[in-house]
Amino acid sequence: MKCHLLGAVGALAVGAILPEAWAQEAILTPAATSPAKGRLTLRTQLRYTRFDDDPTAQGREGDELTSWSRLSYGVTGTISLNVDIALTRRRVDLIGGGDADAQGVGDLSLSAKWRVWQSHTGAIDTARFALIGGVELPTGTGDLSSHSVDPFVGGVLTLVRGRHGVNQGVTYKLNTGTDETPFAPGAGKDDAISYDTAYLYRLSPREYESDTTRAWYATVELNGLYETGGDHEILISPGLLLEAKAFAVEAAVMLPVYQRMNNRPGREWGLVLGVRWLF
Amino acid sequence: MRSLSSTVLFATVLLLAGCGGAPVRESNSRDPSVEEARLATDAQLAEASEVTLWIEGMGCPMCATNLEYELEEIRGVVDASIDLKAGTASVVMGKESATREQLEKAVVDSGLMLARVEVTR
Question: Rounded distance, CA A7 to CA A194, Å?
């Protein structure tokens, strides 16, 4: 069992006491931002994750390569609709031989984000809070699907000031399925609570200029997933984000800092590469 | 892998501590006395060929692009450009001028706030 809980708490504490800290949307953590009314954004990420240390008798280990995409549409200035879909190739080796490989389409996620509050304290500085609600539908292929309709609700706070940014999100997913030993995080029969904290620091430019069209950010995220069956993971995800006027590219590494697994393998490490477009 | 996680976590804490100093405040001249003299009336807006919108809440370049797109969809708007340093949007009008309501709606639909409107030309 990997356990660096003190380190994780320390990082969270440092992030919480940072003076005047703030941001935009990070790589894995949600944000209280949405496309403008009538606008579309498309996010695509290629995610590679290595799994090991399966506590069950199956002794599973393997990896997963996922192409995840999210299409968001601004219904109004405060409400957006989102559709998530993923294509996955999973390789799973079982203890004693054999495999449980899978590839295909994952479950479809439909959600809405409603920004219920915002406060602007300057040209750039902003604070926003949004509610998120949606459902995952069992459209996936074989083992890539939870085979259940799973609703979720959550909230996210976004703060931006100067070069600093913070996003804090919490989501509760009610899993109505029956899989007692899932492979993927949050895909089993137990409810899943995701809690994510992201800090973004604008590396460049130091100050916005009149003709600024892009910005570089260093990001660090703590991404936690607690499942009511007892599985609990916290990953630290440092990353880099380049944001231009109508697109952004991002990269992050995911490393576990705390794991307590009872029903599925833990994440050994992960890599995320992504792009975003605004239409 | 455990030692790598520890190293990354330690380095991240150092980074957060180092970056936690006083943030750079964006320069943004918003002198109230000057603002009063240049606030646009509806009549002035109707005759204007270019106006400056003072915006609040533009957190990033892409946030600003949302606004640019919204403004350019207003009938009568020929061009819109964002100045992140000043926190303004310059809107060039054609033969038909945009109304204050249209301009404010575009800003609100972008998730931002319109602080004031000034006639530039």
Answer: 19
Strands (E), chain A: 40-52, 61-74, 79-93, 102-105, 108-120, 126-137, 150-161, 164-173, 192-204, 214-227, 232-244, 247-260, 266-278
The letter for the amino acid at A91 is: R
| CB-based contact B111 A77, cutoff 8 Å | yes
CA A120 to chain CA centroid, nearest Å: 26
Task: Select from A238, A239, A244 the least CA-distant residue to A215.
Answer: A244
Determine the straight-line distance between the first and last CA of chain B, rounded to whole angstroms: 62
Average pLDDT of chain B is 74
pLDDT at B27 over 70: no
Taking CA atoms, B109 is separated from A31, A76, A202, A241, B67, in Å, by 17, 6, 26, 26, 8
Contact list in B for residue A123 (CB cut-off 8 A) is 26, 28, 54-56, 58, 84, 86-88
CA distance A42 to A23: 20
Residues of chain B with pLDDT > 90, as a percent, come to: 26
Amino acid found at A78: T
Is A21 in contact with B65 (Cβ distance < 8 A)? no
At B70, the amino acid letter reads E
Which residues of chain B neighbour A11 with C-beta distances below 8 Å? 9, 12-13, 16
Per-residue pLDDT tens over the stretch B80-106 = 999 988 889 999 998 888 888 899 999
Total-model pTM: 0.82
What are the contacts of A89-93 at 24+ separation with CB within 8 A? A89/A64, A89/A65, A90/A62, A90/A63, A90/A64, A90/A65, A90/A143, A90/A144, A90/A183, A91/A62, A91/A63, A91/A64, A92/A51, A92/A60, A92/A61, A92/A62, A92/A183, A93/A60, A93/A61, A93/A62
Write down the ipTM of this complex.
0.72
Instruction: Give the nearest partner residue to B61 out of A17, A165, A244, using CB atoms.
Output: A244
Give tens-digit pLDDT for A5-23: 444 444 444 333 333 333 3
What pLDDT, on the 0 to 100 scale, is given for residue A89? 96
pLDDT tens per residue, range B51-90? 999 998 887 788 888 899 999 999 989 999 999 888 899 9
